[in-house]
Amino acid sequence: RDRMEAARRPIGAAMEVLAITMRGKFGNRYGASKGARPMTAKKGPKDFIKGKGATKAGYVNSKGRFILQPHKLVEFVVPDLSDCELKPYVAYSTPKLEKKTLEQLQAQEEGATVPQ
Asked: Half-sphere exposure (CA, 13 Å, Cβ side) for 8?
């Protein structure tokens, strides 16, 4: 019935044909296209686990138990900062340091001046 009304009006008929062409053969029945998006665990097969970039500290054996490998654990080496005078906050009013090249640093150690 709607097509009959659109066919009576030439602009309406043209718009309907254009809309059908733009939607494709099946319209939007299957949802939006998911082509150029990153792969996620929801879109992959059941055994697809993408993760977040973390390293694995072991493996899962044949019985389904996780075997921890101590040599794969992340170890943080933190120096003793109990006698350090520096504070964690840096004020905005702190003057910026200029970057020096290796030649400038070597010349500064020797006492000579090098053009910048």
From this structure: 4
- Cβ atoms of residues 67 and 61 within 8 Å: yes
Angle at 14 between CA 11 and CA 16, to 5 degrees: 110
pLDDT in tens, 72-108: 998 999 989 889 888 888 889 988 888 888 888 888 8
pTM for this entry: 0.31
Strand partners, 59: 67
Q: Which two tokens stand for residue 34?
A: 């998911």
The Cα 70–Cα 87 span in angstroms is 34
d(CA 94, CA 79): 25
